[in-house]
Write a structure and sequence with these properties.
Shape of chain A: globular
Number of domains of chain B: 1
Radius of gyration of chain A: 22 Å
Strand content of chain A: 15-25%
CATH topology of the domain at 2-162 and 187-215 and 269-282 in chain A: Rossmann fold
Oligomer: heterodimer
CATH superfamily of the domain at 2-162 and 187-215 and 269-282 in chain A: Vaccinia Virus protein VP39
Number of strands of chain A: 7
Order of helices and strands of chain B: HEEEEE
Distance between the termini of chain B: 45 Å
Helix content of chain A: 25-40%
Radius of gyration of chain B: 12 Å
Largest interface: A-B, 34 and 27 residues
Number of strands of chain B: 5
CATH architecture of chain B: Single Sheet
Order of helices and strands of chain A: HHHEHEEEHEHHEHHHEH
Largest sheet of chain A: 7 strands, mixed
Largest sheet of chain B: 5 strands, antiparallel
Strand content of chain B: 25-35%
CATH class of the domain at 2-162 and 187-215 and 269-282 in chain A: Alpha Beta
CATH architecture of the domain at 2-162 and 187-215 and 269-282 in chain A: 3-Layer(aba) Sandwich
Number of helices of chain B: 1
Amino acid sequence: MTKDVGRSKHSDGGKGVPGPFDRAVLRQRRLRAAPRFTDHDFLFREIATRLDERLSEITRSFNRVLVIGNQGGIAADLAARRYGQAEVVRTDLDRGLLRCGAGRAVVADDEALPFADGAFDLAISLLGLHWVNDLPGTLIQLRRALRPDGLLLAAFLGGETLRELRQAFLEAETAVEGGVSPRVSPFVDVRTAGSLLQRAGFALPMVDVDSLTVTYENAFALMRDLRGMGETNALIDRRRSLSRRDTVFAMAEVYAARHAGADGRIPATFDVLYLTAWSPHESQPRPLAPGSARTSLGDVLGKKTDD
Amino acid sequence: MSEQHTPPGTELDPKLLEILVCPVTKGPLNYDRERGELISEKAGLAYPVRDGIPIMLVDEARKIDD
């Protein structure tokens, strides 16, 4: 464990920017989940289908596709199926995470992308950006990696994701330990995401949110599934000491008491933010710069009175 | 199908070589075929290629002494 903490200092590309997420631990969590990932990839597949629907609405085709975050190769395979002739490059934090999926594999960090300007015309991120410490920085790098009129399509967890779990932990900790610590990571909301895209220099940014409710037998089954997805660390802040067993049990009780349905199962909310944005190109509609008008309103109105 | 198998060992796919830059400086990389490394002169780092996969992480790069 101490080794991970030491490595994390370099996980931002050596710039020393502190952030809430430990990329080295993310890598470890994903590696641990990798062998049985297909047992827990339901959410990834569901959201990939929705990303694919968005692509189906875009009439143009793409030839050079970048997929950041391999996630079992789901998004890379989707791109290869939809754009048969496309060259696909997919990345993740470790070679062991890149075994499946169409296209060429590169080990890279979303926070320090190793790609030349304009190398791609489509970039996809499937449930990875909620892990990034410097989201504006990653968005700028993605925009640069896209050629003009290239598309960024991303889905990540945000908004009220796991609010039930957050609340249950809060209550249980207050009761058992007499204090609280953050357990569920802070999430980006729709408005923030939109303004980040704009600030990163994207054109025609669109953000929408889709709320999914997944039901589980109990809170332990939910935690098990999050672990299987390799998502525990993103969603639940790692603490120096292990969670106290009685806190976790109390959390599960609170969760059931507050949220269980008639069948005894508990719901878990996943708010998925979908980002669609284009790298700027002259063919795209955009407002003219102030003062750039060639015809004055007076002229137009004056003409009318002459008639 | 667009699926391509990366060559074994440290051989790097030329298509990847075309688009890779140093993740730290975004500057160019020189491919050292013999050592199987991608060299970023500006960053003073050599990124290894393992099983045909370039490892573009600062943590795993070799520092070049000069």
